[in-house]
Every structure is written in structure tokens, then in C-alpha cells.
Design goal:
By secondary structure, the protein is α+β, with helices and mostly antiparallel strands. Among the domains are: 97 residues, Apc35880, domain 1 (Alpha-Beta Plaits, 2-Layer Sandwich); 35 residues, no CATH class. The protein has ten helices and nine strands.
């Protein structure tokens, strides 16, 4: 049993978070029948235009980080998955609008999408920040309290900048899924004490760290933005590691007791210039 939290009940139960890139996932079904009925000239124009557009969306120049990527989806849930990292929701919306103008878009049916923002949860540093503010005698949510919290978050954001504003990892496979924490009558994550949640999240995170050399994980928060609370992206060159990591995590308390999972999507990275062979049935 964990020791009682040294944080006074008067302290906020909400852990601090850092936010970075706005993220959009798009899942498309390709209309193969309409594509085959179109003329060779129409198909060529559509592919040439799409390749040029996707290259521009992928990165601003040859030395810039990759900010959009295309994946060939496996299974019945779709044919193509696009992921975009941008600095704002407005930029993501502009990506959507630009793609909608492309001729290839006439052959695509958007089956699903997901909007979120890269998030780093700060259970450990939240505790220290709250204690520091209380030790200075600041009243909760006073101007002094808010300034203390803001300064702590600013320091954290600077230190964590590479994680908050990531490029799309250079990996062959992507696994994406959304998830919630349970809020039922008998099992409710949001009524568990801060100290217990901190303990469970620490143990949960230790599992992920053991896979750090095989999997790149990006967590994005979506409360108030989409139907689930978080989106999880896993990038790896060996897709079997997704199964191993997620299976092991399900024995962990925070997942076994408090987690709900949505649909899983898995895709193979598709370079924009390979789109022409992809529509011919070859990766």
C-alpha cells in the first residue's frame, strides 16, 4: 500500500501537463472501382499532383523535420492513413483543406479522423511544484500561485521541447489507438488519490522505458477535442514489438483496472513517391 500523499487535500488533484504539436490522424478508404474506370491521363495527373502535395506536406525543405507521413493501412478499416504534426489547429485545418482540393481526393472517402495535441503528463514534477508553492505560503490559484506554476511549466517546456514538438519518427510501421481512463460507478480513475495515480503511472511508464530502444511512443491528449481522452502512436521497425509492449502493459495495474481502448490501426510507411506504385497494387 502506498504511503499517504504529502500533498494537502487542498492541493489540486489534477496533474500538470505540457502541450506541444497539434496532431491530426486521417483514415481513408480508396475507391478502387472509380480509379480503374478513370482514364490513364486522369490517373497520372492525380498521382503527380498528389505526390507533389504530399512531399510539400511532409517537410518544408530537405533539411526540415518530417511533419506529415503516409501509411498503407492493413485490414478492413481503411486503405491509407495520414498523420500530421503542426503548430496549431489552424495549420491542421489548412492541411485538410489543401488535401480536399487535390484530384486524388475524389477517390478517397474519409472513414475516420482523430484530433489531439502532444501531451506530457507531469505527475512527479506536479507534486514538487505544488509543494514548493505551498511552502512559500501562496494561496491556491492566487496570482503568486499561478506565477509559480507558470514558471515551472515554462522551464519544463524548454527542457522537453524535442518531445513536445516531434518529427514523425523514421520507422517502417505505425500503430495508433485511442484510450480512456475508466469513470464508472465502482472503478473511477478520477476519484483515486493523487499519490496512488502517481505511483501507478510511474510503474506504467517503467514498462514503456524498457522498450525505448525498439519503439518510439508519442502520447497526445484529446479531452475536449475528440471522442477519447488520449491518442497513442507507436512507431517501430518490427511490428511484433507492438504486441509485446501492449500485452505486457495490460498486466500493469493502470491498464488492467483503469484503461479502456478504442480501435487499433496499423500501417506500413509509404513514401510519397511510391504512391504511383501503390495504386497499382505494389508497395
Amino acid at each position: 500500500m502506498a504511503e499517504p500523499s504529502p500533498i494537502s487535500p487542498a492541493h489540486p488533484p489534477v496533474p500538470l501537463t505540457l502541450e506541444g504539436s497539434s496532431v491530426l490522424h486521417q483514415f481513408f478508404r480508396f475507391d478502387w472501382k472509380a480509379w480503374k474506370l478513370s482514364s490513364p491521363e486522369e490517373r497520372k495527373r492525380a498521382i503527380d499532383e498528389a505526390v507533389a502535395m504530399l512531399r510539400t506536406l511532409e517537410r518544408e525543405d530537405a533539411n526540415a523535420p518530417v511533419r506529415s507521413a503516409v501509411y498503407s493501412l492493413l485490414g478492413h478499416k481503411g486503405d491509407l492513413m495520414l498523420i500530421h504534426f503542426r503548430h496549431s489547429l489552424e495549420e491542421l485545418n489548412q492541411v485538410e483543406l489543401a488535401l480536399a482540393q487535390a484530384a486524388l481526393h475524389d477517390f478517397l472517402e474519409l472513414r475516420h479522423s482523430y484530433v489531439s495535441v502532444v501531451e506530457l503528463g507531469l505527475y512527479e514534477s506536479s507534486r514538487k511544484t505544488y509543494e514548493a508553492a505551498a511552502a512559500k505560503g501562496f494561496e491556491q490559484f492566487s496570482a503568486e500561485w499561478n506565477a509559480e506554476i507558470a514558471a515551472s511549466l515554462e522551464r519544463g517546456a524548454e527542457a522537453m521541447k524535442p518531445r513536445l514538438w516531434p518529427a514523425v519518427p523514421d520507422a517502417k510501421y505505425l500503430c495508433f489507438y485511442p484510450m480512456d481512463r475508466k469513470r464508472g460507478e465502482t472503478v473511477n480513475w478520477y476519484t483515486v488519490s493523487f499519490a496512488e495515480r502517481q505511483r501507478m503511472m510511474h510503474e506504467h511508464g517503467m514498462i514503456g522505458r524498457r522498450y525505448g530502444d525498439q519503439v518510439k511512443q508519442i502520447i497526445s491528449g484529446s479531452i475536449g477535442m475528440d471522442d477519447w481522452e488520449w491518442g497513442v502512436d507507436l512507431f517501430a521497425d518490427d511490428p511484433v514489438v507492438f504486441k509485446k509492449l501492449i500485452y505486457e502493459m495490460r498486466f500493469d495495474e493502470v491498464s488492467a483496472v483503469y484503461a479502456l481502448f478504442g480501435q487499433f490501426f496499423i500501417g506500413v510507411r509509404l513514401a510519397p513517391e511510391k504512391l504511383g506504385t501503390w495504386v497499382e497494387g505494389r508497395l
